[in-house]
Write a structure and sequence with these properties.
11 helices; alpha/beta; eight-stranded parallel beta sheet; TIM Barrel; 41% helix; 274 residues
Length: 274
């Protein structure tokens, strides 16, 4: 672990809707966002690819999807919930490797070079999904994979909802196998991760406060900015108005001042120190 503080700020759901895409690019150009993970099966995939080409400083990864949207292999709808996905995996109804390989291949074929991988709803915590993700990272030479285990955020002013804390703690039980599988495939993760417990609740004050909690080493902060336009309002997601609030926080000058105060180096995955 390095002695200084390095922070990657990654936006999920690039390619979900055009208004989400616009908010992500705005958060990068005018704020602290350094990376985004692209949904290859997103309705606004082509728009996101165009924006990525116009914004070369934005580090692009792949947001692998097995919940929501449609398969690139079969054209059928994916399960709508994590519980439905678990059942589908147990019944062998999803060809996980083929599905995720098709998504990663679509991004590469669009001329983009993904530097990191994560999954929608953190589905790579499920063993068959993790095995496929690690294999694909190795095959496509993608060095970084998200570690979706939050560091403690109990010190935040408004706290974290009890349900979120319990789920976060439960996910930690999978940590040992998770890191073993990634090591076996030569994958790297940041030293720390934040964002799960405060998804949908990240405002400027919370982001300023979060900067005081960033530990030494490398950290990925997961965010969900966007513009809440007609396409997003019509989409099936609980994150709508909250994306506007996160966008405002990511471009707020007091957040950048807090980063400077706490000696946090803003980087992307391509610039992380190994």
């Amino acid at each position: 672990m390095i002695s200084r503080k390095q922070l990657v700020v990654n936006a999920d759901d690039f390619g979900f809707t055009p208004d989400v895409n616009a908010g992500i690019v705005e958060a990068h150009r005018g704020g602290i966002l350094t990376a985004a993970t692209l949904m290859a099966n997103g309705e606004a995939f082509a728009d996101a690819v165009r924006l990525a080409r116009e914004t070369p400083a934005l580090d692009i990864g792949c947001h692998l999807v097995l919940i929501g949207g449609r398969s690139l292999v079969t054209g059928k709808a994916f399960p709508a919930t994590a519980r439905q996905l678990v059942v589908a995996l147990a019944m062998g109804r999803i060809r996980v490797y083929d599905e995720l390989a098709a998504q990663l291949r679509r991004i590469v074929d669009a001329g983009l070079r993904p530097t990191h991988l994560d999954t929608h709803k953190h589905t790579h915590l499920a063993p068959p999904v993790l095995d496929a993700v690690a294999r694909l990272a190795q095959e496509f030479d993608v060095r970084w994979v998200r570690r979706p285990f939050d560091f403690p955020l109990y010190a935040l002013r408004d706290g974290v909802p009890r349900g979120k804390r319990l789920v976060s703690d439960a996910l930690g039980l999978l940590r040992r196998r998770f890191h073993r599988v990634l090591r076996e495939h030569g994958c790297r993760t940041t030293d720390h991760f934040a964002g799960f417990q405060i998804t949908g609740r990240l405002r400027t004050a919370e982001l300023v406060e979060l900067m005081s909690l960033i530990p030494r080493g490398s950290t990925e902060l997961m965010v969900h900015p966007g513009r809440c336009g007609p396409a997003l309002r019509a989409a099936r997601t609980r994150l709508k108005e909250s994306r506007e609030a996160e966008l405002a926080a990511l471009v707020a000058p007091e957040v950048r001042a807090a980063m400077l105060h706490h000696a946090i180096e803003l980087v992307n995955y391509a610039g992380l120190q190994l």
